[in-house]
Sequence to fold (325 residues):
Amino acid sequence: MRILLSRTDRIGDLVLSTPAIASVRASFPDAHVTMVTSSYNRVVMERNTDVNELIDLPSGSKASTLGARYRDCDLAIALAPRTVDLQLVAATRAPVRVGYTYVRRYLARAAASFCVNRLMLSEADPQLSERDPSRPVRHEVDQLLELVALGGATQRVTRLRLDVTQADRAAVAGMPSDSIVLHLGERWFSGGSTLAGTIELARDLRALGKPLTITYAPDCAAEGAAFARASVADTMLADLPFHHWAAAFEKAACVITVDTGATHVASAMRRPTIVAYEHRYFDLCSQEWAPYDVPYAAIRKPAGEDAASLARLRAEIVAAVGTLA
Fold:
């Protein structure tokens, strides 16, 4: 049996797909499984033995051209509700082609029906969730497990997978153990939080008595430099290779982040996690994209950036650390 899986979007989304991928492997142990990623997110799967073949969809290339190379597939599953993944699966012409989209995206539903012959509809909808906060939305992991079951997967694996080695751990050996880790992302600096306010948060966290480690990627280099000038952290780790970053999270007492892929890397490393979600669409994101199967706190960023609102945000995060770390 030959199986093709496709997910070409973000790193965090692919981390959340690893239980579904493992479920496919467990359900079809003798199958040849090909995984299609982007050049950006492939790092998540580079060490993952649940797939036999890992290939990139080259930037700017047609998904249908790549998909047509896999017309000997028996099963093809688009693990993302994106046109590119659905088109790639459609081009395989596999007898069983599986994908998903959202209930109220009517045009996308119509287009997806031409690409796949087993279509799952997700209940996730920003407007409906904010209109009715009591409306439940399943976690993305659980939705993906249902998706692969639609393709015939009978085994259910629920653990996130990232393969960190002793060499990765050795690379961050200088980081203090049991640190509070604050991961910087662009959403810390707008829309209900600010650079100055996040620097104050770092000071408040350091006052708790545990070492504070700050991690960040190149897109936050300027802000990272501001934190370094403020001398608010015991350790600053910039632009770590992906698996070294995961190993740093593994050493943490807890990880604090905004709604970004760091949330899901922390979950894969089994660390307690605190996430500051955007004020808008909080009810959807804090359910569908919550830390998975770890202790966590979901905190809503304020609607404004006045001093009182920023102080409340910091206080809620510090209180959560006191509970989880």
Notes: The radius of gyration is 20 Å. Residues 296 and 302 are 19 Å apart (CA to CA). DSSP finds 13 helices and twelve strands in the chain. The first strand starts at residue 2 and ends at 6.
